[in-house]
Design brief:
alpha/beta, nine-stranded mixed sheet, 9 helices
């Protein structure tokens, strides 16, 4: 059972935790979960695009794959693995964020692994339901995996993106399509339905709320595409999963989701590494080096994916 506890909280991480509790948590607590309240959240991606941060050593190009807009990130320096790629799915509770808000972590993965990263701009609430978000993500994966250009394609993401990438794993398995080389989840939201007595209620998260997730759940079935397979991604048949690495922090509610997935895969004898960091904030790896913990989480993921890519290449050669 591969579970690694990372102890200690850096000064920058402590500041992030305090800031989240002081500012984000009250705003999220007061923010209404209504269709009309979703529209302002879409501005987050627009603001990130206006700020316009771009990595100096990674080329970023806006393209479409299977009708879905994506950012393609290709490292410009060092060795580049032409045979491997990553489909990255951003977080944001299925209603906010996009490639620009998550460009830093996507660029960090592209740079460190020397691979092309497809940062997927899937459709979100309130325009569509989660089934459509998943379908967009799956169509991009199939376009990349079936292109013949990449021998190994890993899938992963943070929070809601961790759910979409897990569903991509399941749908590829259900369709007998090419399986991803690896799965990675940063604080993945894997169980979108909240029941009475849910253990996530017992965790005093720095800013996200189980109650808000429960209220948001009623909007998930908006269509037009129905959600195929398991509603709860921790219930996906373990046979569907490639090698997996999951990262979370000890004091976030979605630690429960990460632990459930790890336990299920471990029980089935499927390789899955779980890394739990002291304290921290939800989806902290997307900070990609802004804190010591986020830098370490990305490094661990890079090492895991590199090994998975090499193993997949060896199997193909054999």
């Amino acid at each position: 059972m591969s579970v690694t506890a990372h102890t200690g909280v850096s000064a920058k991480s402590a500041l992030a935790i305090a800031g989240a509790r002081l500012f984000l948590k009250p705003v999220i607590h007061l923010y209404p979960v209504r269709s009309w309240s979703f529209a302002p959240l879409a501005l987050v991606e627009g603001i990130a695009n206006l700020i316009g941060w771009m990595p100096g050593d990674v080329e970023v190009e806006r393209i479409e794959l299977a009708g879905v807009p994506v950012e393609r990130l290709v490292p410009t320096g060092g060795d580049v693995r032409a045979d491997a790629a990553i489909c990255y799915y951003h977080g944001g509770a299925f209603l906010t964020g996009g490639p620009a808000t998550h460009r830093r972590v996507a660029a960090a993965l592209a740079r460190a692994l020397g691979v092309t990263v497809f940062n997927v701009d899937y459709r979100q609430l309130p325009d569509v339901g989660v089934g459509t978000s998943v379908d967009d993500g799956y169509r991009v994966y199939r376009a990349v995996a079936d292109s013949g250009r990449y021998g190994q394609v890993a899938v992963g993401g943070d929070s809601a993106g961790g759910y979409i990438s897990a569903k991509v794993v399941e749908l590829a398995w259900l369709d007998a399509a090419a399986a991803p080389a690896a799965y990675f989840g940063f604080s993945p939201l894997l169980a979108p339905t909240v029941e009475d007595g849910d253990p996530r209620y017992e965790i005093d998260d720095a800013y996200i709320s189980v109650g808000k997730l429960r209220g948001l759940r009623e909007f998930f079935d908006r269509g037009p595409d129905e959600l195929r397979g398991s509603d709860d991604a921790t219930e996906i048949d373990p046979a569907a999963f490639p090698p997996a690495i999951v990262v979370a922090c000890t004091e976030e509610m979605l630690r429960v989701d990460a632990e459930r997935l790890h336990a299920r895969l471990d029980e089935a004898g499927k390789p899955c590494d779980l890394h739990l960091f002291d304290g921290g904030v939800h989806a902290f790896p997307v900070l990609a080096g802004a804190t010591a913990e986020s830098g370490k989480a990305v490094q661990l993921t890079v090492a895991y994916l590199a090994a998975a890519f090499d193993a997949a290449m060896s199997r193909r050669a054999a």
